[in-house]
UniProtKB/TrEMBL annotation:
One function term, GO molecular function aspect: protein kinase activity
A cellular-component GO term for this protein: membrane
Record has Transcription as a keyword: no
UniProt topology in membrane: Single-pass membrane protein
SMART domains, alphabetized: LRR_SD22 (SM00365)
PANTHER family reported for this sequence: OS07G0626500 PROTEIN
Keywords (A to Z) from UniProt: ATP-binding, Leucine-rich repeat, Membrane, Nucleotide-binding, Phosphoprotein, Receptor, Repeat, Signal, Transmembrane, Transmembrane helix
Protein origin, superkingdom: Eukaryota
Name under which the protein is recorded: Protein kinase domain-containing protein
Localization per record: Membrane
Organism: Dioscorea zingiberensis
Cleavable signal peptide: 1-28
Major localisation: membrane
Boundaries of every Protein kinase domain copy: 605-868
Length: 868
């Protein structure tokens, strides 16, 4: 019996000893969970996870050899999984990690994981850090996530999560960082803020939160004591800004960002925010004066962005010694420029109504690196005594009213890389030192009145080659000036040039020089690594000849409109090979002959075809040897202004570019009075008049309701462009001047012709419009009628009636009260409640017709209302 007892005792001791060396089921479940989690990883760009997550032979309690897995000090439990930024992908089953009872940190950010956030995440109550940001997780945020009472950081940003924010965030007393940005979450932002407790970093940006933030201070009592960073940008928050009492609660706030919302009202006093370093309200609906405390030393502001609102008043002086970035652009600020900018490095005051001159700039400090004053009403000249700007990198004063010559001081700023003085009234020559600057990358002087030549050729040959080859200039825009002469060959040395815009000047380029551009066309010279020119435009000049083959890779719009006698090479290889003439000789012959194109020596491949005749003259279809087809309008003798006025108007109309307008390409002013031509794009198609009135035989299919509506929309878009952007009435609007292309897209022709005409020519045009039924009645009583915006609107109203009725404005229609014209007939039918009887019978019965046609009818009647 005693021996039997001892034997049993030994067996129990042996069993106990064996159990000491067997991992507990708890530890085995940790390993199992990790291996189950691994099954969801289908791609491992780094190769670190799939290669290392292999169970070791000794089967340890915590597999510390697994990449990204951390164990506790005893080596018995998994406490952290950190796999951020490893290029992992897969549809994860996060529930497989719920059994890790000691897990403190789960970081899977910056991968391509997908799947839903499962409710079982709420059972991982030991978690302190949960970072799933920058993945592809979708679905709602599980309500049980608010059960993670020990959570210190929750980052679910940059995913595809949707739905509302679960209630219960007030339970997360330890939460210090909450980032839900860049998802599709929504909810009342005020309610969400009132639930937060002790959060220091809150980011709800880039979602769909709505509601207001002008809440009672009591809603922020616990949040206000801890909040340091608050980002609510890119939502749908409306109402007014935080009240003075509410904002005072956030005494520790350092960064406040509400960009891109619908917040209105005025800003409260912000002096209580004594720790605020960044304040951003860009693109909201705030108005009123800018609080003065934002410009002083009462708060340590480093960045202030109030752009894209409706702030008004003036900005007197900025005295802050901490403010570095100031953006007040796109507001309604007025008055003079600030007399001081403190220690700012970046200042954007563009798109306001600031006036006066640039004298205040002389007092600004040398800390400035970026200045943007564009799109204001600043006048005067640029002061030369501003040599303090040794740190200046970029200056933009475009779209103002500056006058005078280019200040020579610009070329002395040692770090300057970008200059934009476009759309001003500057005159004189262009400074050679700007084109050969050792720092300048972008130079935009377009839309001024600069004269003279492009000053590269003014340098000595050896010097210019050296300077231009080392210039870093990438963007050069000298368009819309009055530059003359030729394009200097030194352009070939500008190794970094990517954008060259010289259009709308009076350059007369020797094409032999332009062949050098093959040197900077890197695509044509493979051994040079630079990409070379990508945008090139010399249209609206007085060039002639044949475009070199090295420049054929650029679109036709780089050379036309303008340059009427500038041609592209034809496909001539087969003809030249058969004739025994080499390509070089043919090119030389064609170049010489094309330069001499004139009424005496034609450029046309076929005889011109008459397109139509009007009170102005005759229009021809001209096909050039290059294959280009143009419309050439010969203007009647005695109707045209003198040459200087004619050329001035041609320059102005050259600038008109719209997809629904036949662009003007150039003009010809011959020695004889009979040689006055204007050249425009030829539009393949037929006039709206033919579609509406041609019936026997029927050459044109009837226009549907939607097609007629599209024509009306195309026309009104053109009128809006001409009226609002170019300040020009069409002046000759009628169906014969509306050409429908093969896809029925409408393009207007014969626009602004009155600008070329004498007073008698304009009067004759208006008389012709009246006879056809497109002249506003009030213009009939004018002694010297001229085209007006209202006249265009009247003509458009008549055209709408023609589209609806398929009757001509000149038709006489019999009715109960006798014969009336089209406009009177439509008025009468509408007044008697019989408006639908006016409609074209071929489409009136269609299902799509009634509502659209009735709305067009009402619009047409409004258009022909008399001017009050």
């Amino acid at each position: 019996m005693h021996l039997k007892f001892r034997h049993l005792l030994h067996l129990h001791l042996l069993l106990f000893a064996l159990l000491l060396f067997v991992p507990s089921p708890f530890h085995c479940s940790d390993l199992r969970s990790l291996l189950e989690f691994k099954k969801g990883i289908v791609s491992d760009a780094s190769g670190l996870v799939l290669s290392s997550w292999i169970p070791p032979p000794e089967n340890p309690p915590c597999p510390s050899s697994f990449h990204g897995v951390s164990c506790d000090l005893a080596g018995s439990s998994v406490v952290a999984i950190s796999l951020s930024g490893l290029g992992l992908a897969g549809d994860l089953k996060l529930a497989t990690l719920a059994s890790l009872k000691s897990l403190l940190n789960l970081s899977l950010s910056n991968n391509s994981f997908s799947g839903r956030l499962v409710p079982s995440l709420g059972s991982m109550n030991t978690l302190q850090v949960l970072d799933l940001s920058a993945n592809r997780f979708y679905g709602p945020v599980p309500a049980r996530i608010t059960e993670l009472g020990g959570l210190n950081l929750l980052n679910l940003s940059h995913n595809r999560l949707s739905g509302g924010i679960p209630a219960g965030f007030q339970n997360l007393q330890q939460l210090r960082t909450l980032d839900l940005s860049s998802n599709s979450l929504w909810g009342d932002v005020g309610l969400s803020l009132s639930e937060m407790r002790n959060v220091e970093h809150l980011d709800l940006s880039g979602n769909g939160f709505y509601g207001g933030i002008a809440l009672d201070p009591g809603n922020f009592s616990s949040l206000g004591n801890t909040m340091r960073y608050m980002n609510l940008s890119g939502n749908k928050i409306s109402g007014e800004f935080f009240s003075s009492d509410s904002i005072a609660m956030f005494r520790n706030l350092e960064i406040l960002d509400v960009n891109g919302n619908l917040i209105g009202g005025q800003l409260p006093k912000l002096g209580s925010l004594t720790n605020l370093r960044a304040f951003r309200t860009r693109n909201n609906q705030l108005f009123g004066p800018v609080p003065e405390e934002l410009f002083g030393d009462g708060m340590p502001l480093v960045e202030l962005d109030l752009s894209g609102n409706g702030f008004s008043g003036s900005v007197g002086s900025i005295n802050s010694t901490t403010l570095k970035m100031l953006n007040l652009s796109s507001n309604l600020l007025s008055g003079s420029l600030p007399s001081s900018l403190g220690s700012c490095t970046t200042v954007d005051l563009s798109k306001n109504m600031l006036s006066s001159d640039l004298s205040a700039v002389q007092n600004w400090k040398d800390t400035l690196e970026i200045i943007d004053l564009s799109s204001n009403t600043i006048s005067g000249s640029f002061p030369n005594n501003t040599s303090q700007f040794g740190s200046l990198i970029s200056i933009n004063i475009g779209n103002n009213s500056l006058v005078g010559v280019l200040p020579s001081v610009l070329a002395t700023y040692p770090r300057l890389t970008r200059v934009d003085l476009s759309l001003n009234e500057l005159t004189g020559p262009i400074l050679p030192s700007l084109l050969t600057s050792s720092t300048l990358i972008s130079l935009n002087l377009s839309g001024n009145h600069f004269t003279g030549s492009i000053p590269l050729q003014s340098l000595e040959s050896a010097e210019s080659t050296d300077l231009t080859s080392h210039t870093p200039l990438e963007i050069l825009d000298l368009s819309d000036n009055q530059l003359s002469g030729s394009l200097p060959p030194e352009v070939k040395n500008m190794q970094n040039l990517r954008v060259l815009k010289l259009q709308n000047n009076t350059l007369a380029v020797d094409w032999k020089l332009l062949t050098y551009l093959s040197i900077i066309s890197r695509v044509m010279v493979p051994e040079m690594p630079q990409p070379g020119l990508v945008l090139y435009n010399i249209s609206y000049n007085d060039l002639s000849g044949v475009v070199p083959q090295t420049l054929e890779r650029f679109p036709e719009t780089s050379f036309h409109p303008g340059n009427v006698f500038l041609l592209f090479p034809d496909s001539i290889s087969s003809r030249t090979n058969n004739s025994g003439i080499n390509n070089e000789e043919v090119h030389r012959r064609r170049l010489n002959s094309s330069i001499q194109c004139s009424p005496q020596r034609s450029c046309l491949a076929t005889p011109a075809e008459v397109l139509g005749r009007s009170s102005h003259g005759t229009s021809y279809k001209a096909t050039l040897y290059s294959g280009h087809v143009l419309t050439v309008k010969w203007l009647r003798v005695g109707l045209v202004k003198h040459k200087k006025a004619f050329v001035k108007e041609a320059k102005r109309i050259w600038c008109i570019r719209h997809p629904n307008i036949a662009s003007l390409r150039g003009y010809y002013w011959g020695l004889r009075e009979q040689e006055r031509l204007i050249v425009s794009d030829y539009v393949e198609g037929d006039s709206l008049a033919l579609y509406l009135y041609e019936s026997t035989p029927r050459r044109y299919s009837k226009l549907s309701v939607s097609q007629r509506l599209k024509v009306a929309i195309d026309v009104v878009r053109c009128l809006c462009y001409l009226h609002d952007e170019k300040g020009l009435p069409h002046g000759n609007l009628k169906p014969t001047n509306i050409i429908l292309g093969l896809d029925l897209t409408a393009r207007l022709t014969d626009y602004a012709l009155h600008r070329f005409m004498t007073a008698s020519g304009t009067a004759e045009q208006m008389l012709n419009l009246g006879a056809l039924g497109y002249r506003a009645p009030e213009l009939a009583t004018e002694a010297k009628p001229i085209p007006t915006f209202k006249g265009d609107v009247y003509a458009f109203g008549v055209i709408l009636m023609e589209l609806l009725t398929r009757k001509s404005a000149g038709d006489i229609i019999s009715g109960q009260l006798g014969a009336v014209d089209l406009t009177d007939w439509v008025r009468m039918c509408h007044r008697e409640g019989r408006g639908t009887e006016c409609f074209d019978t071929e489409i009136a019965g269609l299902e799509e017709a009634p509502k659209a046609m009735e709305e067009l009818l009402a619009l047409s009647l409004r258009c022909i209302l008399p001017v009050k």
